[in-house]
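How a chain folds remains the central question behind the approach discussed here. This step matters because it turns folding into a mapping between discrete strings. The sequence in question and its structure tokens are set out directly beneath this paragraph.
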Amino acid sequence: MINTRVSGEYVNYGGYNFRIIERAGDGTTKVIMEDLLHIDNDIPSISYGVKKDVVLYNPKEVGNIGYIIEHQAPNYIKTDLFKKHEIEVPIYKNYANYGKASSTKKYTVTFASPSLGEMFSAKGIHMRGNSYWLRDSSNTANRKYLVADAGTVYYDLQLENTDAGIRVVAYIDKNASILDGEGTFEEPYTLVK
């Protein structure tokens, strides 16, 4: 079973490599994609889309990147082994500072952007050269967070029209079994239900 494996090991599912973050309390396995969503060489990019001063990551608000990720990711990835799970969106008064969110919002989703403080959320060495959005949010007008092509985190006030790629965090079904593999990037575990 995949939920017996350890943090840092690799899993391949639906043509993507994921890295295991942790086993959740309900037996599902939290993973983060090692690349950006794509079909062949087509890497979709999105902007926040919602035009108002303060825009928080919200998978329930049409046009928001949280909503776009939740509803468009299934067009790029097989979803059979992923389960809906509660995520937290850290909301900061101004700048993101791990553990110092002024509030959080919770949503139940299948796919979400990584959070800045989430294990393995930094740009990996196997990732294509594109930037991707983070779900961290700020109550400061127009402040959004993304990991840039070079791997640095941008949090400027000028990101409202910026497009970035989609990297997802998801939860694998607790009943998913390992078919083969070693758990390394070169030989990741392959899953079956």
Remarks:
- The helical segments are 65-72.
- Residues 65-72 form the longest helix (8 residues).
- The first strand starts at residue 10 and ends at 13.
- Residues 122 and 151 are 7 Å apart (CA to CA).
